[in-house]
Design goal:
This protein is mainly α and about 450 residues long. It folds into two domains: about 80 residues, no CATH class; about 375 residues, Sodium:dicarboxylate symporter (Proton glutamate symport protein, Orthogonal Bundle), CATH 1.10.3860. The protein is built from 23 helices and no strands. It starts with 5 loop residues before the first helix and ends with a helix.
Length: about 450
């Protein structure tokens, strides 16, 4: 058994004492000087900063930044309310990624992987499965946030944001017309995510129909562009701890500690919704297609754990493909379905996007009618298909969706504080959903090796 480092034990002990002191003070059980409590809290935080510095891990720094931001916002609210400029810088940099990331990932997904002429029935069966399951996930997220109302009751001033524009009500004809771009440069400039997606979809289909001598250079360019945008995102993510700390400090400084209750409700809502997705969507699919349950759980446990720890679906891709082959899915199906699913079948992310978008509206006090919510779901059905395996790329889509529907971006500052914790769960579900999709498609094609699957299950039980 691995020994727990003494530093962790000391940090946990001090944190426990600090929490206990503050609880006793809050309920007037004992009276302690406020300066003493502040010093204790900052001492505990300084130990976590030391741990984060030793680990040199972005995830750790983001979590520690949440503590720093919460304490700073509580102790120095007059300063904290001016820190949202840091989060705005971060979000502006993220917004620059939207168009090239969507364009490159969608073109690769269609022209590079989903050439229906080459893969025949496997193509439309995969896409049919992807659309059905991801749409169900969207509606689960929509229903969950409307039930929990996690964003209702937050007191937040969004009028200070000069970027917010009041959008006049549109007719049905105007909504449909607005989906299609009249000028791709204009769509990129205005951040019209749906128009960028439509252009990318048609462009991807056009590239897929080209002869190889024309198609291959374009695919190589879009792959290079996609990789460059991944690196761009990684660079921007280095300032994420500062943005998260500033976001939490600003939120607590302007709204008080009560905002943490709403964050906890949002996090709980997401996890409950994802569990519901597993139990009432994934499990029935496993039962209907008679997939060996225990063997499948064993096969996906390792890649899902990698995805959960790294918050990146791509980091789990090689292991997921390897385990599905061992589970009985032919290599030709695994190599098509799972990579294609990374653009078209991110069930956890699509659920999160519908949930988070309505949360933004609730925080802003905007009452969205059901038809507007359904339109958001329809938009996310397309925009979520451009979410690649890079960590927190869903933030790009969330920001673009909010802008497209005239929702304020300030509530996104709140979500930044717990985005890491939410990203872990939704990324793991993405991997599980894509592994399940490869098994289902192989069964539809009549090529699933049940003998290997049963043997895999028996080995997993031994």
């Amino acid at each position: 058994m691995k020994k727990i480092p003494k530093l962790y034990i000391i940090s946990f002990t001090i944190l426990t004492l600090v929490v206990l002191f503050n609880i006793l003070e809050a309920y007037s059980i004992i009276l302690l000087p406020s300066l003493f409590l502040i010093i204790c809290r900052w001492l505990a935080i300084s130990l976590f900063v030391y741990i984060a510095n030793r680990k040199k891990n972005l995830t750790t720094w983001i979590l520690v930044s949440m503590l720093i931001g919460a304490e700073f916002g509580h102790d120095f609210p007059t300063i904290a309310i001016h820190l949202n400029v840091v989060s705005k810088i971060f979000l502006r940099l993220i917004k620059t990624i939207i168009a090239p990331l969507l364009f490159s990932t969608l073109v690769i997904g269609i022209a590079g992987h989903a050439n229906l002429k080459q893969v025949g029935r496997m193509g439309w069966k995969s896409i049919l499965y992807f659309e059905i399951v991801s749409t169900i996930a969207l509606f689960i997220g929509l229903i969950a946030i409307n039930i929990s109302k996690a964003g209702v009751g937050v007191s937040m001033n969004v009028s200070q944001n000069s970027e917010i524009q009041q959008v006049a009500p549109q007719t049905f004809e105007e909504i449909i017309l607005h989906i299609f771009p009249e000028n791709i440069a204009k769509a990129v400039y205005e951040g019209q995510v749906l128009q960028i997606v439509i252009f990318s979809l048609i462009f991807g289909i056009a590239v897929a129909l080209l002869a190889d001598k024309f198609k291959i250079p374009i695919i190589r360019f879009t792959e290079s562009l996609s990789e460059a945008m991944f690196k761009f995102t990684n660079i921007v993510m280095y300032i994420a701890p500062f943005a998260v700390g500033a976001a939490i400090a600003y939120s607590i400084g302007s709204s008080g500690l009560g905002i943490l209750v709403n964050l906890a409700k949002l996090l709980g809502t997401l996890y409950v919704a994802l569990i519901f997705l597993c139990l009432f969507v994934f499990l029935p699919i496993i039962i209907i297609f008679k997939i060996p349950l225990k063997g499948f759980i064993k096969a996906v446990s390792q890649p899902a754990a990698v995805a959960f720890a790294t918050t990146s679906s791509e980091s789990a891709l090689p292991r997921a493909m390897e385990m599905m082959e061992k589970f009985g899915v032919p290599k030709k199906i695994v190599s098509f379905v799972i990579p294609t699913g990374y653009s078209f079948n991110l069930d956890g992310t699509t659920l999160y996007l519908s949930l988070a978008t309505i949360f933004i509206a609730q925080v802003a006090g905007i009452d969205l009618p059901i038809e507007k919510q359904l339109m958001i779901v329809f938009t996310l059905m397309l925009t979520s298909k451009g979410v690649a395996g890079v960590p927190r790329a869903s933030l790009v889509i969330l920001l673009g969706t909010a802008a497209s529907f005239g929702l304020p971006i300030e509530p996104i500052f709140i979500i930044l504080g717990i985005d890491e914790l939410m990203d872990m769960a939704r990324t793991a579900i993405n991997v599980i959903g894509n592994c399940l999709a490869s098994v289902v498609v192989s069964i539809w094609e009549g090529e699933f090796d049940r003998t290997k699957a049963l043997n895999f299950e028996i080995k997993s039980l031994n």
